[in-house]
Amino acid sequence: MIRRVQLNDIDDIMVIERQSFPIPWEYSIFLNICLHCGEKTSSKSKALFMDVMEKNGRVIGYAVWELDSSKSRGHILNLAIQQDERRRGNGRILLTHVINHLRSNGIRLCRLEVRESNIPARALYEGYGFIVSSKISEYYFDEDAIVYTLYL
Ligand SMILES: CC(C)(COP(=O)(O)OP(=O)(O)OC[C@H]1O[C@@H](n2cnc3c(N)ncnc32)[C@H](O)[C@@H]1OP(=O)(O)O)[C@@H](O)C(=O)NCCC(=O)NCCS
Prior knowledge:
Aminopeptidase, 37% strand, 4 helices, binds coenzyme A, 8-stranded mixed beta sheet, alpha+beta, single chain
């Protein structure tokens, strides 16, 4: 099941975040999103969303993305699956969910950044049809980012 994030998901999310990224997002970032019930509107056209994937009452993954309907662009900011739930198709399901949400909002282009060394994520995105559009030097301070785009 994939649903919008709730405040009581935050402990599960922090466990996954810390096991997934060398520089995890801080608790306060997730708290802020949860306090807005996973849907933050910053202007008429810009909004940020966070959904979680749930299994047996526990969060096993999540995605955070934003859309700018005036520019018809989406941006995936975070996507992670719990370590022992990986390689079971969950990442692809969550990514499809995000892409479908963007499409249903009229978005034409989706972009994301990924660490150059992140082979699993790069394989997921490339397998989905994302193409490398550029590279940002030291985007993560200790590593370059590869920028991927997908035309929807
Ligand atoms: C990237 C991530 C979300 C993938 O989730 P997942 O549930 O394991 O992905 P799936 O099982 O749906 O795999 C989909 C495809 O991705 C690729 N893939 C996933 N893990 C891989 C790995 N370890 N090595 C190589 N390819 C991999 C494969 O092409 C796979 O398709 P296949 O199983 O048919 O071969 C997961 O590894 C993760 O949470 N990583 C840490 C967080 C992260 O890096 N997020 C992305 C930041 S932008």
